[in-house]
Every structure is written in structure tokens, then in C-alpha cells.
Amino acid sequence: MHQIQSDLVSFRELVPEINDTGYLTHAIFYYPAKFIPQVVRYAINTFTKEEDWIIDPFAGSGTVGLEAYLCKRNALLLDLNPLLNYIIPLKIYPNKERLNKGRLCELLEGMEQSVHPFMPKWSNVEYWYPQEMLETLSKYWGFAKNIEQNSYSQIIESVLLKTSKHFSYAEHRIPKLYRSKRKKSYIEDLLKAEWKDKLKEMVCTLSLKTLQDINNFISITQKHKNRVEYKGGIDSSYYQVGHACDALITSPPYLQAQEYIRTAKMDLFWLGYIPKKKSEN
User: Fold this and answer.
1) pLDDT tens-digit profile of 18-47?
2) CA distance 99 to 57
3) Is the pTM of this model over 0.70?
């Protein structure tokens, strides 16, 4: 019997031009078990050429699409999770005009004056938040939903997704919606301190960083004319692709893939998404 030997491969060493897995807009949205961009970049460079079409039928947070766009390839992204439809417009920003920091700051200054709270249509929402934090978050979300809907409001909403998870009882570093003793203790400690100031500071800091990340992306891709098509909330098994594709690059779903959808449930409810099924389980 022959013993099979294998060599360890470090994609970080094979793709040294990427030294940060969260560079540019890769880190705008948290998503569990993301592809590291070095793996995708290696596959793109090795198996495709400029203007090729790449398909990712389990697109997740759109890592393949972003790397394809940066490498002047076209991409078709599909995913069962409808969150993809909210991620891609910021992560692969379609416009070429840089965003204005001053305009974003003006909007953020008005956040405290919000008089139109937004509460998710989720019967379990109070299970995940202490009442006072839920009220403040609902005010911020109401602000984001009642200003002009554009790239700036999308930035604020993307940041509110992170802060809404951070200031909840839910763990956000594991692929399931999970209320832990550690997180409950963390929230209880926050409530004893100046948590409102910390929440506001987090929203402002992350919003400005997101704007800068997008502007950096715009600068790098100013002359790119390739395309990224995306469809979230569909089963890629039954999707009819309308054009030929030159490569398939994907990370197949895990056996517990349903937990990834469940993990996004909190985000989707805050975004106003209403599932087709009556059950919220």
C-alpha cells in the first residue's frame, strides 16, 4: 500500500500582494467562514484571463465577486441568503465618483435627533437586547431609513448591522445565532458604563472607515469596466445562467449551512426583510 504524501500550501505566500484579508471593502460586512481573498486571487490568476466570466453559486459575502472585479474579470454571484443583495452594492461599489466625508459627517450629526424609530418585525427581538439598548438602536435605524436613500444611508445601515450585533446578547464570531453567558456578562458591564457614548462613537468611526474603504476601492478601479451580477435569496441549483462562464470558483456549503442563514436573521430583520414563510424559527 502506497502512502500518499501531500505538501502544505500557503496561499498567503503564493499571493504576497494581498497582505490583509480585510483590505479595501472586504471587511465592510461581517460574514461567517468567509473565503480568504488570497485563495480566490490565486484561482483567478491561475485559471482565468481578463474579461472572463466567473460564477460563484454559493457567493456568501461576495469575496469571489470583489476579487474578480479587482482583476478585471466579470462575475455572477448567487446565494440562498438574501443578505447578498444588501452586501454587493457597497462591497463592489458601482459608481466612479468619490464619496464626500463632509456629507456623511453632517448626516451622522443628525442621528441623535431622530424622531422616527424603527423596530424590526421580529417577535423575538426583545430576547436579544436589553430594553434601553434596543430603544437607542431603533432610533438610529429609524434615522437611517428616513433620510434620503443613497450610498450614504447604505453606509450607515452597514455599520448599524455591526453595532446592532455588538450591542446585543448574540455572539457574532460563530456561525449561528447564539446567546452566550459571556456576551450577557459583557452587555451587563456595558450598561454600567457610558454605553451610549460608545455606541455612537462606534457608529461614527466605522462609518468614516467604510467611506474611506469605498473611496480607496473607487481609486483603484476607476478605469474598470467589467461587470458583477448578483442574485441573493435564490437556490442556485435551479437558476438558469443566461451566458457562458469560463470558471467556477466557490466554497461549497457546510453540512450545517442552514445555520449561516439563521446567523443572518438578525441582520435581515433590521434591514426590514420579511421572510416569505410565516415561521420565524
Assistant:
1) 999 999 999 999 888 788 999 999 999 999
2) 31
3) yes
The closest of 7, 73, 8, 89 to 40, measured between CA atoms, is 73
Give the cell for residue 144. 437611517
